[in-house]
Amino acid sequence: MIFRIKTYNNINEAGLEAFPRGLYEVGSSIESEDAVLVRSARLHEQPLSPNLKAVARAGAGVNNIPVDRLSEQGIPVFNAPGANANAVKELVIAGLFMGFRNIAPALEFVERIEGEGESFEKAVEAGKKRFVGRELPGRRLGVVGLGAIGGQVANAARSLGMEVIGYDPGLTVEHAWRLASDVRQARSLDELLGESDVVSLHVPLMDKTRDLINERRIAVMRPGAVLLNFARDGLVDREAVIASVESEHLGGYVTDFPHPDLLKRERVVALPHLGASTGEAEANSAVMAVQNLRDFLENGNIRHSVNFPDVVMPRTDGGRLAVANANVPNMVGQVGTALAEAGLNIVDLLNRSQGELAYTLVDVDGEVPETVAAAIEAIDGVLKARSIAPVSARG
Ligand SMILES: NC(=O)c1ccc[n+]([C@@H]2O[C@H](COP(=O)([O-])OP(=O)(O)OC[C@H]3O[C@@H](n4cnc5c(N)ncnc54)[C@H](O)[C@@H]3O)[C@@H](O)[C@H]2O)c1
Ligand SMILES: O=C(O)CC[C@@H](O)C(=O)O
């Protein structure tokens, strides 16, 4: 079997090379694709191939992918958690300095100086007083979202002498372990906003986080506070942010998401979505996304999916059935019965659920015929059932 992968955006070569020739066809013009590999391209309006089995995001955010629609069809969406976190952290720290040292307007001022020799130097010295900045030690950074990126930003800010306060009601144990021990926990977003000299956003864009920073919350922020948004445009009410910067309540807005309304404004810096744009981050993200995709397509294993639980089972000698289904009673029972009726002996089985979805891997002696997989897919509540050939039968 040849797997067909449709790519959107520029996918790093290291990732593309991780697809073995002979087993995969990969490209932007592939049709009837088994899987999609994407960066930031918006897939919500794209038609989905009837063969589609998985979508992989070579990056962190999945707001460009119709995750709910794919979940209803039993299609996992993978991402590459942490693969670009260092790159984003570095740009956020650059943003921190830009916000506190007036670097962008200062550069623009220098570009516009005319004359040369003594008159040039005089203009430099006369103009620089407009760009007097503030130092970081002793100031407080509030980090909203302490996941892969927020955690690294918090730790880097600590090493720059800042105090750090964080807010993340869904903080994982793994991410908590990586945090500097003196990062203080805020009990609410408002507490963090009211106590921070600079606030950095590192949460995903979802219905719940859209316009997280709105007029009311900006009013809670300290006068002169700087807002850093390297996460997603939709997390802030842009008009409210602009009004607050104009009225000088907010001391600055530094973002990775430009918009015409943000341009040519004092104390606003907009970069062209550069957070993950380093060779290292692009390679890490593409390789991790391709590894996730390959293990799913070739073995049915699920790792780093945003809509399915991790389900990983070592291969046995025989074939495998991979079933995505609604998380309701008696699904595994019905799958087992269908396999028994087809005369197939179960060698190993793993079932996990997450929210409304469940996923089951069943290894059998021999191979699961396509007709049996199709009959299982027709069971009420089964969203997808796929027969996976034994490893020895792979071309
Ligand atoms: N600028 C860029 O190029 C770039 C690159 C990578 C990621 N991002 C953005 O950054 C986001 C975070 O990336 P990550 O890798 O750190 O993801 P992550 O999943 O590791 O961390 C996100 C954290 O946000 C927390 N969270 C969710 N909702 C929250 C809320 N309402 N309040 C507080 N915390 C909340 C989660 O519990 C989680 O710990 C991505 O979703 C993406 O939108 C931007
Ligand atoms: O692919 C990119 O350049 C941006 C990725 C970034 O926004 C992410 O969410 O990982």
UniProtKB/TrEMBL annotation:
<dbReference type="Pfam" id="PF02826">
    <property type="entry name" value="2-Hacid_dh_C"/>
</dbReference>
<feature type="domain" description="ACT">
    <location>
        <begin position="320"/>
        <end position="390"/>
    </location>
</feature>
<dbReference type="GO" id="GO:0004617">
    <property type="term" value="F:phosphoglycerate dehydrogenase activity"/>
</dbReference>
<dbReference type="Pfam" id="PF00389">
    <property type="entry name" value="2-Hacid_dh"/>
</dbReference>
<comment type="similarity">
    <text>Belongs to the D-isomer specific 2-hydroxyacid dehydrogenase family.</text>
</comment>
<protein>
    <recommendedName>
        <fullName>D-3-phosphoglycerate dehydrogenase</fullName>
        <ecNumber>1.1.1.399</ecNumber>
        <ecNumber>1.1.1.95</ecNumber>
    </recommendedName>
</protein>
<keyword id="KW-0560">Oxidoreductase</keyword>
<dbReference type="InterPro" id="IPR029752">
    <property type="entry name" value="D-isomer_DH_CS1"/>
</dbReference>
<dbReference type="InterPro" id="IPR045865">
    <property type="entry name" value="ACT-like_dom_sf"/>
</dbReference>
<dbReference type="GO" id="GO:0051287">
    <property type="term" value="F:NAD binding"/>
</dbReference>
<dbReference type="InterPro" id="IPR002912">
    <property type="entry name" value="ACT_dom"/>
</dbReference>
<comment type="function">
    <text>Catalyzes the reversible oxidation of 3-phospho-D-glycerate to 3-phosphonooxypyruvate, the first step of the phosphorylated L-serine biosynthesis pathway. Also catalyzes the reversible oxidation of 2-hydroxyglutarate to 2-oxoglutarate.</text>
</comment>
<comment type="pathway">
    <text>Amino-acid biosynthesis; L-serine biosynthesis; L-serine from 3-phospho-D-glycerate: step 1/3.</text>
</comment>
<keyword id="KW-0520">NAD</keyword>
<dbReference type="InterPro" id="IPR036291">
    <property type="entry name" value="NAD(P)-bd_dom_sf"/>
</dbReference>
<dbReference type="InterPro" id="IPR029753">
    <property type="entry name" value="D-isomer_DH_CS"/>
</dbReference>
<dbReference type="InterPro" id="IPR006140">
    <property type="entry name" value="D-isomer_DH_NAD-bd"/>
</dbReference>
<dbReference type="InterPro" id="IPR006139">
    <property type="entry name" value="D-isomer_2_OHA_DH_cat_dom"/>
</dbReference>
